[in-house]
Write a structure and sequence with these properties.
It is built from 10 helices and 8 strands. The protein is of the alpha+beta class. Strands 4, 5, 6, 7 and 8 form a 5-stranded antiparallel beta sheet that branches. A 3-stranded antiparallel beta sheet has the order 1-3-2.
């Protein structure tokens, strides 16, 4: 008969808790970028997306008593008095105080058992099973965590850059110029739309002046082409197009 292994709860290390929080935030930003991209494609007003971050922070532990980052690292939130599962209200309360930012981080370091102010208010503590660190050293799990981190970083970096370029005033000026360019209109007919984001581009600004360049798709009634555009902006001025040509 296989004997049962007794698992002992221990205080979770600050390093693992911070790493778990970073995983949660990375996933949140990746999800936010996906929502914005899908919403932009569907033409949906995304002003409500500004509330996703505080809502995520408040509710990230509620549905399964621990967030995705905590689950990946084997962390659990329990009542400080008896190690039982806390109420939903307590899980929300402990996250409300994250608005204190650096003060919460400092309290995590100086408080006994690593209990930040949110834990003290909700009467909770974050723990882990003592055998969990050994499991995390498993090569497959390490590779999975690494691959997940790379994917999330790629989505955040590339998606964030494309969102910034695609919603910039410089890109708007380039798109408007392409609608009036004779060569573009001759190739595509009446311009009906553009690619969701520029396929490549850059923006540099300093002291109100700037330079920008883009390569983007222009769609029309007769077809589509890729256009290359360079722009500049004088101090406190508008973006002006210097070069706009069809990319062969």
């Amino acid at each position: 008969m296989q004997s049962e292994v007794e698992l002992v709860l221990t205080w979770a290390s600050n390093r693992r808790r911070v790493f778990g929080f970073m995983i949660d935030m990375s996933l949140m930003f990746a999800a936010l970028i996906i929502v914005v991209i899908v919403g932009t494609i569907a033409g949906i007003n995304l002003s409500i997306s500004m509330f996703l971050l505080p809502l995520w922070l408040l509710l990230r532990d509620v549905f399964t008593n621990r967030s995705i980052g905590k689950r990946m690292l084997g962390l659990y939130i329990v009542k400080a008095e008896d190690r039982a599962a806390p109420s939903k209200g307590a899980l929300v309360l402990r996250n409300v105080l994250l608005i204190l930012g650096p003060i919460e981080l400092l309290s995590l370091v100086v408080q006994k058992e690593g209990r930040r102010l949110g834990d003290l208010a909700a009467k909770t503590i974050v723990v882990s099973y003592e055998d969990r660190p050994r499991k995390l050293r498993n090569t497959k799990k390490r590779l999975l965590l690494l691959a997940s981190g790379v994917v999330v970083f790629f989505v955040i970096t590339v998606g964030g850059t494309m969102l910034f370029l695609g919603n910039s005033g410089a890109f708007d000026a380039a798109k408007q110029a392409s609608k009036q360019d004779e060569q573009v209109v001759a190739r595509v007919g009446e311009v009906t739309g553009f690619g969701l984001f520029p396929s490549s581009g850059s923006i540099e600004t300093s002291n109100g002046e700037g330079k920008a360049s883009f390569r983007f798709k222009v769609k029309g009634t007769k077809g589509s082409v890729h256009v290359i555009s360079s722009l500049h902006k004088s101090n406190k001025g508008k973006w002006e197009v210097d070069i706009l040509r069809i990319s062969e």
